[in-house]
Backbone:
């Protein structure tokens, strides 16, 4: 951790503590650290470990990202959520679950990037040889948020199909598979399995949300979420060599037939001269 970053972090912790009108002793007790340790951290004299920084954030009732840099805290905008999508009649949750899923994805990605920044390592998006691995991570974080917002109806089915399964608390809860793809690519799966799907597509912009089509930066931003039912004949099979064993790609007609439940128009990966046309097409659930 650089001296500048350590000093800025200390100032931010002190600022938040004083904003909460809490004493050094009160925050230190909540964070389960000695008041002297907290004092040194606030003065920039000591570098906090990730675990201590997390405990201080909890004591101050903020996320780790808000603690480190409030301007970099990413959260999805409610105005991007499409609340009246018909698909909600078929699942036991509403648009708030989609919003929390994206929020949890951002929160976890930002926490990891904070840890990497502290070690002088490049952000997570630059750690993978294949973006498919990053897509998997985003999908798992998103699934955890949806499960959290489901009032105990769903749990994450880690590493198995489907990604979200019923906890048994209520009958008739459908399993949900989550598929993630970059930019305007079609989501892929290992096999053409029918069922309920949530698809996420994302782009790589910078931390501040500046996106330039055709340029991949270091921070994943979800630009679209869709939800719907898939049948086996709606997959395009591919035996392309080097395709990581993935042999079933969503057909364009199938994906565009899904209900759009979240759309960030600022991140749409289509050419600029088609932006208005693209936005209208997405909102009206028609193909581009």
Residues:
């Amino acid at each position: 951790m650089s001296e500048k970053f350590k000093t800025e972090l200390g100032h931010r912790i002190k600022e938040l503590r004083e904003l909460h009108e809490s004493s050094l002793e009160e925050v230190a007790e909540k964070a389960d650290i000695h008041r002297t340790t907290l004092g040194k951290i606030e003065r920039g004299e000591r570098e906090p470990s990730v675990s201590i920084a997390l405990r201080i954030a909890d004591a101050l009732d903020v996320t780790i990202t808000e603690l480190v840099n409030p301007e970099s805290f990413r959260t999805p905008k409610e105005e991007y959520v499409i609340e009246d999508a018909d698909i909600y009649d078929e699942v036991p949750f509403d648009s708030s679950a989609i919003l929390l899923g994206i929020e949890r994805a951002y929160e976890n990605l930002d926490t990891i990037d904070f840890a990497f920044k502290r070690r002088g390592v490049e952000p997570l998006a630059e750690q993978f040889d294949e973006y498919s691995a990053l897509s998997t991570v985003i999908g798992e974080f998103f699934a955890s948020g949806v499960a959290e917002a489901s009032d105990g109806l769903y749990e994450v089915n880690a590493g198995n199909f489907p990604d979200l399964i019923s906890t048994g608390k209520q009958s008739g809860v459908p399993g949900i598979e989550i598929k993630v793809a970059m930019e305007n690519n079609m989501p892929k799966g290992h096999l053409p399995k029918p069922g309920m799907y949530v698809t996420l597509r994302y782009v790589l912009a910078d931390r501040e949300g500046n996106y330039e089509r055709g340029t991949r930066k270091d921070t994943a931003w979800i630009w679209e979420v869709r939800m719907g039912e898939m049948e086996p004949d709606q997959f395009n099979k591919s035996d392309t060599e080097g395709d990581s064993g993935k042999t079933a790609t969503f057909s364009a007609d199938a994906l565009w037939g899904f209900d759009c439940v979240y759309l960030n128009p600022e991140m749409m990966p289509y050419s600029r001269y088609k932006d208005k046309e693209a936005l209208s097409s997405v909102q009206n659930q028609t193909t581009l």
About this structure: Strands lie at 154-156, 164-166, 176-182, 188-189, 195-205, 219-230, 235-237, 248-250, 259-263. The chain is about 35% helix and 15% strand.
